[in-house]
């Protein structure tokens, strides 16, 4: 396969690409170090809502990745920005306690919030909780999904993600959630703006054929699929968007993509 050319910047998914659970993907650290050394424009796009962006950065640095502040885009920061743009709405934050401080600027209303904000709460989902959210939606609240992923790769294989709960709440309430993270177009556009590159000269790299590759291609970028994390053999055969490139791991990046700082598209 000839190398991809015309790529001047990268958007890189984290979970399943740089690491799986708490284990770095072999070779990924070297690739990130080389991207940093060559000053290739890059941003990291995660749908993680279990940690603040600052905590994600801390984890990456702890795992040995040369990632800097301001390079990580998380749905939490994007959601806070979205809420700020609405004034000072009341919310019901359905999020982990560790990320609650990020939402401290908005009054919490357990009866009639303006927005119900859904993040990953792991095994804390329950029938009473879902019923309470249903009542709030019925009373007029709008639904925000920080992402709508179907599943993720956990320590013990694929696990159900919050998309199942978001879809269920949409079904029973008749309301469409506003999805903030990948594959939302505005999330990709935010990262592209910060790269100051046109979508056509940027590649999105991820282990999720729909959210990363499909979302990136819908936003006008190239899509690169890695066979780590949640990737499963043959998933690309049924996907709406074909990846422009498939590689075993991020560690192979420079074998597949001709990346040059400032090279013309
Ligand atoms: Mg991923």
What do you see in this structure?
The chain is of the alpha/beta class. The protein folds into 2 domains: 9-47 and 182-256, Rossmann fold, CATH 3.40.50.1000; 88-179, HAD superfamily/HAD-like (Rossmann fold), CATH 3.40.50.1000. Helices cover 30% and strands 19% of the residues. It has a 6-stranded parallel β-sheet. A 4-stranded parallel β-sheet has the order 6-7-8-11, covered by helices on one side. A two-stranded antiparallel ribbon has the order 2-3. The longest helix has 12 residues, at 127-138. The structure holds magnesium ion (MG). Magnesium ion is lined by residues 13, 15-17, 206-208, 229.
Strands, helices and their partners?
Blueprint: E1 9-13, E2 19-20, E3 23-24, H1 28-37, E4 42-45, H2 53-62, E5 72-73, H3 75-85, E6 91-94, E7 115-118, H4 127-138, E8 142-145, E9 151-154, E10 157-160, H5 163-173, E11 178-179, H6 185-195, E12 202-206, H7 209-218, E13 222-226, E14 245-247, H8 253-256
Parallel strand pairs: 1-4, 1-12, 4-5, 6-7, 7-8, 8-11, 12-13, 13-14
Antiparallel strand pairs: 2-3, 9-10
Helix pairs in contact: 4-5
Bound molecules: magnesium ion (MG).
CATH superfamily of the largest domain: HAD superfamily/HAD-like
Q: What's the count of strands?
A: 14
Query: How many H/I helical runs?
Result: 8
The radius of gyration computed from the alpha-carbon positions, rounded to a whole number of angstroms, is 19 Å
Structural class: alpha/beta
CATH architectural grouping of the largest domain: 3-Layer(aba) Sandwich
Taking strands numbered 1, 2, ... along the chain, how are they ordered across the largest sheet? Answer: 5-4-1-12-13-14
């Amino acid at each position: 396969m000839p190398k991809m050319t015309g790529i001047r910047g990268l958007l890189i998914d984290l979970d399943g690409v740089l690491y799986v659970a708490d284990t770095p993907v072999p070779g990924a650290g070297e690739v990130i170090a080389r991207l940093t050394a060559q000053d290739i424009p890059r941003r990291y796009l995660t749908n993680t809502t279990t940690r603040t962006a600052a905590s994600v950065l801390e984890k990456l640095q702890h795992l040995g990745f040369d990632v800097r502040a301001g390079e990580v885009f998380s749905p939490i920061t994007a959601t806070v920005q979205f809420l700020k743009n609405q004034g000072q709405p009341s919310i019901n934050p359905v999020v982990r306690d560790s990320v609650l401080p990020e939402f401290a600027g908005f009054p919490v209303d357990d009866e009639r919030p303006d927005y119900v904000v859904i993040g990953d709460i792991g095994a804390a989902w329950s029938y009473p909780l879902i019923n309470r959210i249903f009542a709030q939606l019925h009373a007029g609240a709008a639904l925000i999904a920080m992402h709508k992923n179907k599943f993720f790769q956990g320590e013990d294989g694929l696990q159900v993600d919050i998309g199942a709960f978001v879809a269920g709440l949409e079904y029973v309430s008749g309301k469409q959630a506003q999805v903030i993270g990948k594959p939302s177009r505005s999330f990709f556009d935010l990262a592209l703006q910060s790269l100051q590159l046109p979508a056509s000269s940027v590649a999105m790299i991820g282990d999720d054929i729909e959210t990363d590759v499909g979302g990136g291609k819908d936003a006008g970028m190239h899509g690169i699929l890695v066979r780590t994390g949640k990737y499963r053999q043959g998933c690309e055969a049924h996907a709406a968007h074909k990846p422009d490139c498939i590689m075993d791991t991020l560690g192979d990046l420079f074998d597949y993509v001709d990346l040059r700082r400032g090279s013309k598209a």
